Amino acid sequence: VKEYFLADAVRIVCATSAWAKTHPVSRPKDLEKYQVFGARDAVEHRSVRFTKGSREEAVLFHPQIVCRNNLAALHCSLTGKGAALSVPRFLAQSFLNSGELVRLLPDWNVSSLPLRAITPNQKLVNPIIEEWVKYVQASLAFQRENFKCPNNLVERLSGHFIFGSYNMFDGSGGFQISDAAGAYKAAENLKIVLDR
User: Burial, 8: exposed, middle or buried (Cβ in 10 Å; 0-12, 13-18, 19+)?
Assistant: First the structure.
């Protein structure tokens, strides 16, 4: 397989405002006293490292519920029974905007979640795939509160557009060249999804 780095998704801790009012959290170690929900990749080691400038705190806990994915952890926190730990900010964004969830420890950083596109390793790489990767990288680079990208990525990709087109699947799991309108429509659909 071939792997393309897209961005690092910023992860946060969040809970309902009602839960936050009755469960004070002023530093990461406070989370050890409460029920937390987390996706397996974030909590399986039972230690989560937080940083704030040069300060560092490791939170040791035994989650009662280890979720299969970040959305499940997020939805568990929406029940008001605990905090969602290390969920990607972009997944929580609509709940934060609506006030259903509040961010806990906003001055502290949790390890980010690397996002990658993975394609079959082929002798000839379809240029449409590489253009799509550049488009996604550029889209994520402009959402700085949700994604961390290499410093030069925004400058390198700004003004970059997808040229060409494709049908989503050609039967082999790859892309197939079609017409330019199809690529433009797919890029617009992707932009709509990323902007939500």
Answer: middle
Contact partners, residue 190, CB within 8 Å, separation at least 6? 132, 135, 136, 139
Dist. CA 110–CA 10, nearest whole Å? 8
Distance of alpha carbon 29 from alpha carbon 124, whole angstroms: 50
User: Are 87 and 74 within 8 A, CB to CB?
Assistant: yes
pLDDT digits (tens, 9 = 90+) for 53-84: 999 998 887 666 778 888 998 999 999 999 99
**8 Å CB contact between 72 and 83:** no
Per-residue pLDDT reduced to its tens digit, 130-165:
888 888 988 888 888 899 887 655 555 444 443 333
How far apart (Å, rounded) are the C-alpha atoms in residues 14 and 105?
Answer: 8
